[in-house]
Amino acid sequence: MSIGVNIHHKIKKFTLDAEFHIQEPGITALFGPSGSGKTTLINIIAGLENPTRGHIQIRDHVIFEHNRQINLPIRQRRVGYVFQDARLFPHKTVRDNLYFGARRNANKLPHDEQEAIIEMLGLDPLMARRPNKLSGGEKQRVALGRALLANPDILLLDEPLSALDYTRKEEILPYFEWLRDHRKLPILYVTHSIDEVARLADHIVVMDKGKTLASGTVFEMLSRSDLPPLAGQFDAGTVLAARIVSRDPKGEVSFLDCGGQRIVVPYLGRPANNDVRLHIRARDVMIARTPPNGISANNIIPVTITKITDGKGDTLDVDMCFGHDADAAFLAKTNGRPTLHARITRWSGSRLKLGLHQKVYAVIKSVTVSGPRREL
Ligand code: ADP
Ligand code: MG
Predict the structure, then answer these.
(1) Closest ligand 1 atom to the C-alpha of 33?
(2) Where are the domains of the chain?
(3) CATH 3.40.50.300 applies to domain 3-227
């Protein structure tokens, strides 16, 4: 197990009840609106606050267990924490900030791994500077470097990008992707941005009003419309795993494979066999009874309707799984097969006479591709 949490905590009027278990490493997004208790929860995991009861386990080490009076001090928890604001020591240079935690650490990272982290984060040119001479993105890179050099068992990131503008976010995101793919370090990543979740997370723990509502893989969770914090953002649509197969001879488009279905996207400039994620917004998916001709959309995918629910206002949310070959037993649980979501007007739903298990075509106007897990 990479992380197991089951705790109860009360501070003044706020009660936190959190329970989730993540088996594999990778990035777990702690997702929920402001005030839902995300920071409180990771402060508890880091040992900055003590819960009233419960237990916390990281990589098979129990770091807190109320019943057995286990409560490891912060230093022994082997947790790397990157705060929302970088919290560097203002009077120390970048070099001294970086090695602050690592110096007193009994479990030192081998020298070549330290070098790899510093190189990966591009910190060499910054070493002699003080924090007031760094940009917001540079400060976060130093904070991330400091946390990693202490050789933690888990990395806790509290909205590490929220203070940065779009360009700086784009500068930092690939480092998180690199950590996820190359260091196999479990990462608990607090965010309220569905785009960051869709791009980075392997798992999601959804929080609302001090409670963990559900947890699961990013693919399962982003296709659930019943969870309030996600439902508000559900316009986000579907996240699917795909692989680059080839490109057209002129290099104008890339061809991807997504569960056996070909998907065409604007040329990605990356070689075949790279894994990518597709992010398809519900509002970018149209539904057709017959495959349309003479249409600019590049992706017309045979799908079977698995669920129709009333959306907000005059809309319908239509869930579909790929393919026309699914039988009724299969449709009862579409686990494993890529699914799509469309948001259409109720009026077009009745005009097309859409019904459960109907075989139709999803016409996809636009696909956002993130990843691949590129080399830095
Ligand atoms: P999030 O990180 O999801 O925005 P927080 O964990 O910061 O949420 O806060 C959760 C709730 O706990 C909020 O209602 C906040 O006002 C309350 N809270 C946080 N810290 C304290 C504290 N030290 N004393 C009292 N209430 C607190
Ligand atoms: Mg917070």
Answers:
(1) 3
(2) 3-227, 239-366
(3) yes
Instruction: Check pocket membership of 247 for ligand 1, CB cut-off 6 A.
Output: no
The alpha carbon of residue 174 and the mean position of all alpha carbons in its chain are separated, in whole angstroms, by 13
- Ligand closest to Cα of 209 equals 1
Ligand 2 midpoint to CA 158 (Å): 7
Per-position pLDDT tens, the chain of length 376: 789 999 999 999 999 999 999 988 889 999 998 899 999 999 999 999 999 999 999 988 999 999 999 999 998 999 999 998 889 999 999 999 998 876 666 677 888 889 988 988 899 999 999 999 999 889 999 999 999 999 899 999 999 888 777 777 877 888 888 788 777 789 999 998 887 888 889 999 999 999 999 999 888 887 776 776 676 654 557 888 899 999 999 999 999 999 889 999 988 888 888 888 888 888 889 999 999 998 888 899 999 998 898 877 898 989 898 988 876 656 655 556 778 889 899 999 999 999 999 999 999 987 777 764 444 3
Q: Reply yes or no: is the peptide bond before residue 372 cis, omega within 30 of 0.
A: yes
Is the C-beta atom of 229 inside 6 A of ligand 1?
A: no
- Do 3-227 and 239-366 fold alike per CATH? no
User: With contact defined as beta carbons under 8 Å apart, do 356 and 307 qualify?
Assistant: yes
CATH architecture of 239-366: Beta Barrel (2.40)
Q: How far is CA 30 from CA 4, 6, 14, 340, in A?
A: 13, 15, 18, 24
Give the position, in ligand 1's atom list, of the atom nearest the Cα of 159: 2
DSSP state of 110: P
- Decide: 48 in ligand 1 pocket, CB within 6 A: no
